[in-house]
Write the structure tokens for this entry.
Amino acid sequence: MKPTIRPMTEADVSAVAALDRLVFTLPWSEASFRHEVVHNPLARYVVLEDDGAIIGYAGMWLVFDEAHVTNIAVHPAHRGRGYGARLLKHLTDIARDHSISKMTLEVRASNAVARRLYAKFGFRAAGLRPGYYEDTGEDAIIMWADLAEPSAAEEGSETRSMRSADRGLSRGGDADGAAHFGAGDEL
Ligand SMILES: CC(C)(COP(=O)(O)OP(=O)(O)OC[C@H]1O[C@@H](n2cnc3c(N)ncnc32)[C@H](O)[C@@H]1OP(=O)(O)O)[C@@H](O)C(=O)NCCC(=O)NCCS
């Protein structure tokens, strides 16, 4: 059955934190995720569930007229199948349901895969936080998207296949293409 996206609950926190530890070098604690799900009224978190297992998650804060994406991750074994895009689309749908048309996030300069995903959704670089990531001292790129405009990701599938073909070898022959960028590529 196709994996489904649903709201994250407190019961998911332990599995989500385990996935976060697998994916990121600066993972969030269980307490942080619990706080988001249980106590933060601005937070909207979702999980991607496949046959009872959590294989991805994403979250954001709805702050006045802006949505701030805090996390998005897909289990390494399930990448490259459109799940990251589904999660991000889900967040944009929630934001639009709240009449929010501006979405922002931060991404490591080296995280080419995530930056490509964000570009598909209309995110554009708008600034830098120098030395933002404390493990490597890498800069964070601040990106913004205007949700009032339909993004390339929301246009036809023809655009998607053309872009995938155009990418050529960047993913070719690599069972886990994101491994080059994977661990440590946090927001
Ligand atoms: C970023 C991440 C969530 C993408 O998830 P995913 O399910 O593999 O992505 P999708 O299959 O939905 O691909 C969506 C787009 O991402 C980009 N992308 C995905 N894998 C890629 C790869 N190996 N090489 C280049 N671009 C890639 C493409 O733009 C792709 O769209 P396209 O196939 O139409 O060209 C996933 O790689 C991940 O969890 N990375 C580690 C955590 C992380 O870095 N999170 C972001 C922090 S800012």
Observations:
- The pocket of coenzyme A is lined by residues 23, 72-74, 79-85, 107, 111, 113-114, 116-117, 120, 160, 163-164, 167, 170-171, 177-178, 182, 185-187 (CB under 6 Å).
- Residues 4-169 form a domain with the Aminopeptidase fold (CATH 3.40.630.30).
- Residues 73 and 86 are 11 Å apart (CA to CA).
